[in-house]
Amino acid sequence: MQVELRDIRKTYGPVKANAGISLRIPAASIQGILGENGAGKSTLMKILSGFILPDSGEIFLDGQAVSIRSPADSIRNGIGMLHQDPLDFPPMKLIDDFILGHPGALGLGKAAAAREFRALAEQFDFALEPEAWVDSLTVGERQQLEILRLLWLGARVLILDEPTTGISLPQKEKLFATLKRLAAEGMSILFVSHKLEDVEFLCDRAAVLRQGSLVGEARPPFDTRTLVEMMFGKEVPLAERRTTVRESGILQVRDVSLEGLRIQMRNVSFEVRAGEVIGLAGMEGSGQSTFLGACAGLSRPVEGSFCIEEQDMTGRSHHDYKKEGVAYLPAARLEEGLVPGLSLTEHFVLAEEKKGVFIDRRKARRLAQERIELYNIKGRPESTVESLSGGNQQRMLLALLRSPLSLILVEHPTRGLDIESTIYIWSKLKARCAEGTGIVFISADLDEILQYSDRVIVFFAGKVSPPLPASSLNVDRLGALIGGKLWEELESEVAHA
Amino acid sequence: MSGDIILIGLAGVLSSAAPIIFGVVGETISERAGVINLSMNGMILLTAMGGFAVSLATGSLILGFLAGAAIGALVALIVAFASITIKASQVAVGFVLALLCRDLSYFLGNPIMGEAGPRLPSASIPMLKDLPVIGALFFRQDLMTWLSFILILAAWFFIFRTRPGLVLRGIGEKPAAAYVRGANVNRLRYLYTVLGGAIAGLAGPIFSLSVKAGWKGTISGLDGIGWIVLAITIFGGWNPFKAAFGAYLFAFLQWLGLVLQPALPGLPSQVLQVAPFPLMILSLLLVNIGNAEWVELSLAHLPPRARRSISRLLRAMNATPPAALGTPFAKD
């Protein structure tokens, strides 16, 4: 189905999220929508899917003007959107999630729906079981579930908002294959991303948004430099690799075994040295989060010990780890890392952990102001944290870290951030390394792992590789290990060494 | 104690649990949609008084029950308006309403206090009532007790086996996700809060026209029941079957207190009167034990098979509340 947007405008207070965007997407094609965080991509897509109303503008489907005033309207017109955080129901069974919102009789018609579910899943080679629970799925599988559901609803236009954040390489390959196939069958696909390589690989055309306006369109072969210039209005240099590893050890992990309800890990041993960056790679739920949490004292090992700078920390509380200079930055920034409702100033007051009961307002505000400038946060001391964009929340988390630190443990440091913010975050993390801090991080982005790690540990279904020098890996080998291949080879290498 | 007395006692447990069941099912529907109706305690008192007053004035039992449902719906409408339209705190609004309705019922009910009024007759079914055991338990009850059985089944079927019920669970769990699937979240929340209020509003008249017939003001012994209803809704994991089990357990414990009193003359009578409450707390703890970290840790040492079956059992007992319970929905 051909989609045409004409002069779409939407303002939030003083911010022009969409300042008159016109775009035409032909049928049977994949249209990339590029732009940095806050460029207006999500707003435009939410308008097309009826989630928010534009101030003005028109939408045409196959040349017919349509009025889309609610998601119900967009569904009726065959538009389906896959949101960045899958909008599904984690405590439900897949089949219930699949049926919810589908029109039909009073009864659920589960048997018939399950048949159609299986047929669709088989068609796209998705290994999804209708009686399983949604909360047992990885992000990639939840996307697959949403795609099946939207197809069952009869979607002919599919919008995907940053679909490749948080999914593994094999899942990404499968997603791309599915999208290409759907486009070949006549579907129009809008692929929203800030990842150039994904757009370059997948899309038939790309539109670039900056500050609410369409700044240009491109067709393959894409030129990365031109696209980056269009996105940022300037060239962004990539940081060069440099290592700051020193000889002294920070964290010793000795023969640690961990058990969660779903996953078990046995006899993990390695050492993090001062100034070293270790990347933990693996599909979501392969044990790396459990492991990182254990390094921060959040759960206890069944066997083995953790030492920080030669001091045995096994079985101590997270509070004790913090006293030893360990900082833990969880993936869910707003849920676990920051306190929604509190202002930036109040966060700095909390983080300082000064003695005494009273708050010196003026001093606190001055400190907040300093840090905000130092970390280049777009926000005011009195803004609440939830009003910040994702990139600024991540900067805020870094700004809250105390100095000096011996170890930083961080989950998905740049998930959902654009290139500029990513480079900025890593420049700050690397500056910590130069001071002798060790960093252990989890990322689903293989390029990020290879770009910034000194050594990489791969997790697969509870198996844990020894630390592998990043120089010995490339995207293909790392992708294979994450997918559970090449492990025998790896184990024999270790046995010989 | 002879068998007959036990049977009559248990039949009494079933009928005295009926108002609690109406309250719990109404609250469950409302909370499934994401709205906490905390006014339950005052609302039950007000509907008990109002239902009895209407029945007394008109001589009609049906009008009495309808008045209860109408008052319940009206109170729920205030909760819905405050929490959905004005986006005020549901807890604050509900709590104030609970206090207001309670005092209102005592104040307005003063003139009819202690008057003898109509009473719901028991409706025995011929033939079936003479069946051994189940005849005495089920077929000599009054109409509202039967309706309470049907209500449990119907509510469960609606929530878990129908398409609108699935959407109901969706709007309480993740309203944004239900909204992108075409549901009009706020309108549905209004609907289910008012419906839940109407159902719970029948609890009062069941007390004042049947279980504890009449209106006796502060000594009616109804004050506190609404808080128990709220607790049982949580205890029941927002599932009508489990909630009904909680209601029957509570009624049974109360009856046990009465029965045991003559058997244990040394024990102060207050102990037995209060006993159902701590016992309810204990069972609440037991049901949610799977949430505790130490349980998970100690389970880790068991052999895998035993661990899997225990954790499955815990997962079945353990209910997570509707994720969006108590939070208003706004599309960013």
Task: Label this structure with key terms.
heterodimer, A: 497 residues, alpha/beta, Rossmann fold, 3 domains, 7-stranded mixed sheet, 6-stranded mixed sheet, 18 helices, globular, B: 332 residues, mainly alpha, 17 helices
Q: Indicate the overall shape of chain B.
A: globular
Derived from helix and strand composition plus strand pairing, the structural class of chain B reads mainly alpha
CATH structural fold name of the largest domain in chain A: Rossmann fold
Number of extended strands of chain B: 0
Unreliable residue stretches of chain A: none
Radius of gyration of chain B, CA atoms, in whole angstroms? 21 Å
Mean pLDDT over the full residue set of chain A? 87
- Give the H and E element order of chain B: HHHHHHHHHHHHHHHHH
Strand tally of chain A is: 21
Judging from the principal axes of the Cα atoms, what is the shape of chain A? globular
Query: What is the second-level CATH architecture of the largest domain in chain A?
Result: 3-Layer(aba) Sandwich
Polypeptide structure, described:
The complex is a heterodimer of chains A (497) and B (332). Chain A has 497 residues and is α/β, with parallel strands linked by helices. Chain A folds into 3 domains: 3-232, Rossmann fold, CATH 3.40.50.300; 249-325 and 402-496, Rossmann fold (3-Layer(aba) Sandwich), CATH 3.40.50.300; 340-401, no CATH class. Chain A has helices at residues 41-48, 71-76, 94-99, 110-123, 139-152, 169-184, 196-202, 224-232, 288-295, 318-323, 333-337, 344-352, 361-374, 390-400, 419-434, 446-452, 475-482, 487-496; strands at 3-12, 15-25, 29-34, 56-61, 64-66, 79-82, 157-161, 188-193, 205-210, 213-218, 249-259, 264-273, 277-281, 303-308, 311-312, 326-329, 407-411, 438-442, 455-460, 463-464, 468-469. In chain A, strands 13, 16, 17, 18, 19, 20 and 21 form a 7-stranded mixed sheet that branches. In chain A, strands 6-7-8-3-9-10 form a 6-stranded mixed sheet, with helices on both faces. In chain A, helix 12 (344-352) crosses helix 13 and helix 14 packs parallel to helix 15. Chain A is globular, with a radius of gyration of 24 Å. Chain A starts with a strand and ends with a helix. The mean pLDDT of chain A is 87. By secondary structure, chain B is mainly α. Chain B has a domain at 3-217. Chain B is built from 17 helices and no strands. In chain B, helix 2 packs parallel to helix 7 (143-161) and helix 2 packs antiparallel against helix 13. The longest helix of chain B has 25 residues, at 61-85. The termini of chain B are far apart.
